[in-house]
Design goal:
The complex is a heterodimer.
Chain A (H helix, E strand, L loop, with lengths): L3 H4 L13 H4 L2 E6 L33 H4 L4 E6 L2 H7 L17 H10 L3 E6 L2 E6 L7 E6 L1 E2 L2 E3 H14 L3 E4 L1 E2 L9 H11 L3 E5 L18 E6 L3 E2 L2 E5 L4 E2 L15 E5 L19 H4 L3 E5 L5 H10 L4 E5 L17 E4 L1 H13 L4 E6 L3 E2 L6 E2 L19 E4 L3 E4 L18 E4 L2 H18 L5 H10 L12 E2 L8 H4 L6 H4 L4 E2 L4 H10 L4 H8 L22 E5 L4 E11 L4 E8 L4 E6 L2 E4 L5 E10 L7 E9 L4 E10 L1
Parallel strand pairs in A: 1-5, 1-8, 2-5, 8-10, 10-11, 11-22, 15-16, 16-17, 17-18, 21-25, 27-34
Antiparallel strand pairs in A: 3-4, 6-7, 12-20, 13-14, 13-19, 15-19, 23-24, 26-28, 28-32, 29-31, 29-33, 30-32, 33-34
Chain B lengths: L5 E7 L11 H12 L5 E5 L5 E6 L1 H8 L4 E6 L2 E4 L1
Antiparallel strand pairs in B: 1-3, 1-4, 2-3
Helix pairs in contact in B: 1-2
């Protein structure tokens, strides 16, 4: 967050965001591991009184005093442990606090990313220097601690959502998820439905199970599902081999550098007596083989930073962490405790080739600090979970992507930046990666939009972010996927990468009401009991005379799952004017083999709030099962572009 | 039996509370008591859901599903940080 506001163009939004109370009246509830309230990111200087509508509380614990913790920035802090303790036994008070205090770091990182105050002149171990700030610096934060060292449980999460809505949160941010289950069985989807119905926007992380297909969490259409991309910043640390070759890696190591002359170099798999010694698992390296050497470890199974500790404990001088096919070219920087760098699969294979061919291999690592302006950026992170949605393939997920790789934000004082027990360091900030990091970026942006447009529904706010997202670099092709090195697809990035300056003035939105979602549930053939679990409406029944279709949900993106036989699918959409009067014209970029017909092709809006319908018909000939194709539909009045991705799959 | 217990979220039809009860919490308590002598309510939900959570055996959960006013009984899911 010393770079993402600029990367997102937030420095260009100042004129668009009203400085009225509407922006600072938004309270974002962050359900996570709690908060370390002493961090400067929670400084409330310059903020007005706590919104009068706020009904939350600052719950106390032995190590969490409300008078010292909560203020006009951190307006609420609660913890929910009854479900956890019922399942796992009493909280181990020697390891974590039965209070909102964050002993993990994750919750402090996410909440400060959402709405942390600006903290100038910060860095992480000398890296990523700048002013750290949340995406909505004027919004307020309320933390709901629902995750403990042993996990996060549905009964606690639902209780926290229950309370957060009662307290008056306008946005909920959840950087957590479970497997895939039907919406009425998913505690988060259940809570989010009622939240949406009460005007609360809910954003959730998509998950880190990529790059495999259909690996998403939190896919309910009333949730904003957020994938992760990189930003234009990197932390290069190059591997220099004695054969003259050098390979680019990344690292956040900060400490005593390696000697200037190359050191002996060994593959971990050749310094062990165990079959998985190449992974540098605890206790697997032979000290007499690795002492004083740089060790190449393969990525996988155990934590990346733990591998460094294993090398260090065995007497190694440094580590090169090599990706395998599972991670490809994705590089995640870590604050290793010994000189270390991470390299991609291609570099890793080349380095191994040198290791196996040279009888006396030597190497060193050159740490290059922080580099900005990296291109191309963003690229989709390999770990970011991918669509299509396994629950409803006709709803395109994830919805969009945001920065989630190497993100600097505030950190707990309980553990070091690696989270390892062996890490004695304590830092105000940390750099970590995940869709957990991209989700709070979007939550902060949702708060910005809600503050700028307090009368917009959750559906309209989400639509504004989605239809203004970009899917291509300026004049330079589609956003890339680091997992493949090729152009990513809407199954990877949804509508694309968020563009908040444009989202503040989207022109048109695809609005969605609770009634629309109920029709959607009817289209899924949900029973009245299942609908009641989600909606709390015990007397709601679907109209047997009405032909409900999932394709009628007024979603800002299109996913069409064709049967293998040639077929035609028709979607109906409604656009609402949220800008000046004008005429919008449709343009379609359709993939080969799919005919796309939009009717009408022009829509004229003469008043604010005016709604216009259109239909789009997709026709295709038979295609092999498993085929996919993509396109884009745009409505433009020359000033605005209201874009929707089209994703086609043949089952 | 305690070892077999799981946490369930019991969704209730708030509008179907019998008139004998003055508060929903009392109704939830009575419903729970009717299927288990020992179970206690972990949370009562009132904003994003109507109902409660409690530790139940599978047999108790099935019995709960048949109680009047019960919309559904779901085993809670476990989630992880992303």
């Amino acid at each position: 967050t010393t770079r993402t506001p600029e990367f997102l163009g937030l420095d260009r939004t100042e004129g668009f965001i009203p400085q009225s109370n509407t922006t600072s009246d938004v309270v974002v509830g962050v359900l996570d591991t709690g908060v370390w309230p002493e961090r400067k990111s929670y400084d409330d200087a310059g903020l007005g009184p706590v919104p009068a509508s706020w009904k939350g509380a600052c719950e106390e614990g032995k190590d969490f005093k409300a008078a010292n913790a909560c203020n006009r920035k951190l307006v609420g802090a609660r913890f929910f442990s009854q479900g956890y303790e019922a399942r796992m036994g009493p909280i181990n008070l020697t390891r974590e606090s039965r209070s909102p205090r964050d002993n993990d770091g994750h919750g402090t990182h996410t909440s400060s990313t959402v709405a942390g105050s600006a903290v100038p002149d910060v860095d992480f171990l000398g890296y990523a220097a700048g002013t750290a700030r949340g995406m909505s610096t004027r919004a307020r934060i309320a933390v709901y601690k629902v995750c403990w060292l042993g996990g996060c449980f549905g009964s606690d999460i639902l209780a926290a959502m229950d309370k957060a809505i009662e307290d008056g949160c306008g946005v909920l941010s959840l950087s957590l998820g479970g497997g895939m289950s039907d919406y009425y069985r998913d505690n988060i989807a259940v809570g989010a439905f009622s939240a949406m119905a009460m005007g609360v926007v809910v954003s959730c992380s998509a998950g880190n199970a990529g790059p495999g297909a259909s690996t998403l969490s939190n896919v309910a259409p009333w949730i904003t599902t957020v994938g992760a991309g990189t930003l234009d910043r990197d932390f290069p640390a190059n591997v220099l081999l004695s054969n003259g070759k050098n390979y680019t890696g990344v690292s956040l190591y900060s400490g005593k550098p390696l000697p200037s002359s190359p050191l002996p170099f060994i593959y971990a798999g050749n310094a062990t007596n165990t079959t998985n010694g190449n992974l540098c698992m605890t206790g697997t390296l032979l000290p007499d083989k690795v002492a004083g050497k740089i060790v190449l470890c393969d990525r996988g199974i155990n934590a990346r930073v733990q591998k460094g500790s294993v090398v260090r404990d065995a007497g190694g001088a440094g580590m090169i962490l090599a990706n395998t096919a599972a991670n490809g070219e994705e590089l995640v920087a870590d604050a290793h405790l010994l000189p270390a760098t991470a390299v991609g699969e291609i570099a890793g294979d080349a380095i191994k080739s040198y290791l196996f061919s040279d009888p006396n291999p030597t190497a060193t690592i050159a740490f290059r600090g922080t580099k900005v302006g990296v291109k191309p950026s963003p690229v989709v992170a390999a770990f970011s979970s991918r669509g299509p949605s396994a629950i409803t393939p006709d709803i395109l997920k994830p919805d969009l992507i945001a920065p989630g790789v190497n993100i600097l934000a505030a950190w707990t004082g309980s553990v070091g930046p690696t989270g390892q027990a062996a890490d004695p360091r304590r830092t105000e900030f940390n750099i970590i990666s995940g869709t957990s990091m991209s989700c709070p970026h979007v939550s902060g942006l949702l708060a910005l939009l809600k503050g700028a447009h307090p009368d917009w529904s959750p559906g309209a706010i989400k639509s504004a972010l989605m239809t203004t997202a970009y899917a291509a670099y300026p004049g330079d092709g589609g956003i890339l996927d680091v997992a493949t090195g090729r152009a990513a697809t809407p199954f990877d990035f949804g509508a694309g990468h968020v563009d908040p300056p444009k989202a503040l003035d989207p022109g048109l939105v695809y609005d969605l009401t609770t009634e629309d979602y109920l029709d959607f549930l009817c289209a899924l053939n949900y029973t009245p009991l299942q609908i009641a679990r989600l909606s709390r409406l015990t007397n709601y029944t679907c109209d047997r005379q009405k032909a409900y279709e999932v394709s009628d949900l007024n979603y800002p993106s299109f996913a069409v799952a064709f049967a293998t036989a040639s077929t035609t699918v028709k979607h109906t959409r409604t656009l609402t004017n949220v800008g000046a009067p004008g005429t919008y014209k449709a343009t379609v970029s359709a993939p080969e083999g799919v005919k796309v017909v939009v009717e009408p092709t022009a829509l004229t809006f003469s008043a604010l709030g005016e709604k216009k319908n259109y239909t789009v018909t997709f026709s295709t000939a038979s295609q092999p099962s498993g085929s996919t194709a993509f396109g884009r539909l745009e409505w433009s009045d020359a000033q605005h572009v209201v874009a929707s991705p089209l994703a086609f799959s043949w089952t | 039996a305690a070892a077999k217990k799981r946490t369930y979220i019991v969704h209730m039809a708030k509008s179907q509370m019998p008139p004998a009860f003055a508060e929903h919490r009392h109704w939830y308590d009575a419903s729970l008591r009717s299927v288990s002598d020992t179970a206690e309510i972990l949370y009562a939900y009132d904003t994003v859901a109507h109902g409660f959570s409690a530790r139940l055996t599978p047999a108790e959960a099935r019995a709960m599903e048949r109680r009047p006013g019960v919309l559904g009984v779901m085993a809670e899911a476990r989630y992880e940080l992303h």
